[in-house]
Write a structure and sequence with these properties.
about 280 residues, mainly beta, 6-stranded mixed beta sheet, 4-stranded antiparallel beta sheet, 18 strands, globular, disordered N terminus
Length: about 280
């Protein structure tokens, strides 16, 4: 067990093994205002971005809770700490429309400052979890609503400039996750991966490899939408080297997936054609 800032317990749990040789998570832009109530617990990073910085330096990520509260996550360093060593921080809103509690450090691992990733979500039982980038993608999750946090390996990082993960909520309350990363730790192929919880607020299931997409260069930064009526998961991604080349893939009834298809609005030069691995 590692003690976080302000006495918050951070429980480091065992590593989750990924299927198929491991594979595989921006923030809402809002300046972090000085909070007198936070005092020594306030992360310095958002106020004084590190020299190497990143597109998310000086911003926070907000999560709207089921009860109407808007909790905040950020990347920063403790007051008086090393600006090069950034961590995940969190503070809850005390009530809808009310003030916030003090900032507390959640992660024991340093966040990748070149391209920081921070993706929070809320389970149906009120427990929070957040995915962040370090030497890989890690998952922080509350052991109980409002309780201590666990920290565990979740996935390989997306390659630099390849975007981060996207989260969605299925109609039954299960969380879903998608990300582009390498096919495995020794393969250069990059493609999209998907997985979801097996039950609402339950464990995460197995990974599904969706392939590199229909272009000559792999897709990047997939975004996820979920049909609220039939639960169909729809992923949209663009070609890494040409963001105007857009492709889609859908989860079919029964859990299978369609083939990738190129958006009709994409330029005529968007072409490719690499089969998905089995």
């Amino acid at each position: 067990m590692v003690s976080g800032a302000a006495g918050v317990a951070v429980v480091v749990t065992s590593v989750i093994a990924l299927a198929a040789g491991a594979a595989t998570a921006g923030p809402v832009t809002m300046a972090v205002a000085a909070d007198p109530s936070a005092s020594a617990s306030t992360p310095s990073g958002p106020h004084t971005p590190p020299p190497t910085g990143g597109p998310d330096a000086g911003t926070i990520t907000t999560l709207t809770r089921m009860d109407g509260r808007t909790d905040q996550f950020s990347v920063g360093y403790p007051a008086g700490g090393n600006p090069a060593l950034q961590y995940v921080w969190y503070r809850p809103q005390l009530a809808p429309g009310a003030g916030y509690g003090p900032w507390v450090q959640l992660s024991a691992r340093v966040v990748a400052t070149r391209w920081p990733v921070l993706r929070p979500a809320e389970n149906t039982d009120g427990r929070l979890e957040v995915f962040f980038s370090s030497d890989a993608i890690y998952r922080l999750a509350q052991v109980s609503p409002g309780g201590a946090w666990s920290e565990e390996y979740f996935a390989m990082n997306s390659p630099t400039w390849w975007g981060g993960p996207s989260l969605g909520t299925l109609p039954d309350g299960r969380l879903a996750y998608t990300q582009t990363t390498r096919y495995n730790s020794y393969d250069h192929e990059i493609g999209a991966w998907y997985l979801s919880q097996t039950t609402p607020s339950g464990p995460w299931g197995g990974w599904v490899y969706l392939g590199p997409g229909p272009f000559r260069v792999a897709v990047t930064s997939p975004s996820m939408t979920v049909d609220p009526l039939d639960g169909t998961v729809h992923l949209t991604a663009s070609m890494w080297s040409a963001v105007t080349c857009v492709a889609h893939i859908d989860q079919l009834p029964g859990g299978g997936w369609s083939a990738w298809w190129i958006d009709p609005a994409s330029p005529a030069g968007c072409r490719g054609g690499r089969p998905r691995r089995s």
